[in-house]
Design brief:
It is elongated and about 90 Å long. It is built from 12 helices and 11 strands. A hairpin with a 2-residue loop joins strand 1 and strand 2.
């Protein structure tokens, strides 16, 4: 069976307007053409489909069963097309900058700093993605990326941005209580909320086999943000990346527990296109991110 030829968009647009208005004349007014042009378009479409799409109804028209089926398909298609065109228009915004950033780093370190960036660049429209599989920087989809290693992609400038570390933290109330008793008794007074990867990671596993071994572990998560939420709810202490808890420490919601080791964490890298940037705004965001990293 041969493939059905898709009618032109011009014919489908004329049909959709006529069906929506129930009138060739009103469809013609909307599309700024003559009524005879709409009538001719509908006739062409019916000839291609070999189906009647309208029947006369008083001074207007109404859809046949075939017309109703086609109208639903055309309207869904037009909705998708208009959505796509809207997204394209957004990407033509000279203030738009797209950044890929791992979710924990965005959640704890970058997100609280965005008002500062927005105040500096009021025209900025920042597109933020946590999809780390989309880290290829190409001046079309991704302007820059923060990642746990250099991307080693030709044509990029890459620099170490931030040095993370693992901290033992607790809500202020729990931290004050633990500060008044010997560390060897801490496990009797609070629980340990765990991030699954930290239990087996070379960087932190010894900590859980050593000073944290005696703690009850009521919950183990595979997302550091959920561990942070649980700790902020007062459910216990946790070993978390310093950049994830940065804002919570600054607000006084959490405290670093003294006496526990601080272990080296991830080195985060910033990558962007070398040479002239796609826009001044892209360059300014790259420079701002670099400056924020240098402050730490």
């Amino acid at each position: 069976m041969s493939e059905q030829r898709i009618p032109s968009m011009k014919l489908l647009m004329g049909f959709e307007a006529a069906a929506r208005h129930g009138s060739f004349s009103r469809a013609a007014d909307e599309l700024h053409v003559t009524q005879s042009a709409i009538s001719h378009q509908v006739q062409q479409l019916e000839a291609q489909l070999m189906q009647p799409l309208f029947r006369r109804a008083g001074r207007g028209v109404e859809l046949t069963v075939a017309g109703e089926v086609l109208l639903r398909s055309v309207q869904r298609t037009l909705t998708v097309l208009r959505s796509g065109l809207g997204r394209i228009a957004t990407y033509l915004d000279p203030g738009l900058v797209s950044l890929v950033c791992p979710a924990p780093l965005l959640y704890g370190w970058l997100q609280p700093r965005l008002p500062l960036l927005q105040a500096l660049l009021p025209e900025l429209c920042l597109v933020l993605s946590v999809d780390e599989s989309a880290r290829f920087v190409d001046e079309i989809d991704v302007d820059m990326a923060i990642s746990n290693r250099p991307l080693l992609q030709p044509g990029l400038q890459e620099l170490p941005l931030l040095q993370d570390e693992w901290l033992l933290v607790a809500p202020a109330g729990i931290a004050e209580k633990l500060g008044a008793i010997p560390q060897a008794q801490h496990h009797l007074h609070t629980d340990l909320i765990c991030l699954e990867e930290s239990l087996t990671s070379e960087a932190t596993a010894a900590l859980f086999l050593g000073p944290l071994d005696g703690f009850r572990k009521p919950a183990i998560y595979d997302d550091a943000r959920l561990v942070l939420d649980a700790v902020l709810e007062g459910r216990g202490m946790a070993c978390l990346p310093s950049l994830l808890v940065d804002a919570s420490l600054a607000r006084g919601q959490l405290q670093i527990l003294p006496g526990y080791p601080r272990l080296p964490g991830t080195t985060w890298w910033l990558s962007g296109v070398a040479g002239p940037a796609r826009s001044d705004t892209v360059l300014q965001v790259f420079q701002w991110l670099s400056a924020q990293g240098q402050r730490l």
